Amino acid sequence: MDESKEYSPLPSLNEHKNHAVSGKLYIPIVLLLFIFLACCALAVGISLGYIGRSNVCRGNSTSSYHFNSMNPQKLEYIWPENVEKMINEIVDNNMHITNDDRAVLLKTELMRFPTSDVFYIIVYDDTDGPTNQALTGVENSYITVFKPGKCNVVVYRSRAWSSSPSSALSTITDQVEGVCKLGIAEISDYSDFPKIAFKHIDNIRFLGIIGKEHNVAVRSANSFGRAWGPGWWDTIPVFRNGTTVSTGKEFILIAGYK
Length: 258
Prior knowledge:
4-stranded antiparallel beta sheet, 11 strands
């Protein structure tokens, strides 16, 4: 034992000071630790909330809740009833946005449904009559929702596009572009044209033409790797009857693969 160091049973003055300082520091340290843990918990909560909202915005959510911020409804994939209901909700609750914005909302909601069906979404200004639009197709393959004073919506579904061969895209592209190069003769009623053009494009179940001046927006849903599917669409000019002189009017022609 080192005899130079004397032992005393009584604490020294310095020891009293150290205990006093420790007592004073203990409370603020605990308080700071509590604030730090609370901030961490808040940060984690905000991050998780952001990720959840981000997934919904990107269409990654697998839920079937459809867009109506005031009254969300859970819908199963029932064609055409529930799809038509969803279309009406989106149009009625989104009056002050563009046709392309509406098409994007419809695309997002269609991609929530658990289905391999692939869709064309076509949204354009409210119009009627065969001078501005004409549609034809296999029964129950497409939905039309016409909203006077708002917009018109057409949704076509393809049952075979996701499993079609790679040649399907090039074939339908060539055939649609071939029809469009020939143009349309100027007439007052275009309702027969889709029926005629339908015969010149293989493996389709829908064909429509809509006047380009009506702010036509075309979007696809579930057409992974082939963004312009299911099928092809292009602009077709209107020629003066018997000539190749353009009248200035153009249609958007959309052909939907079977």
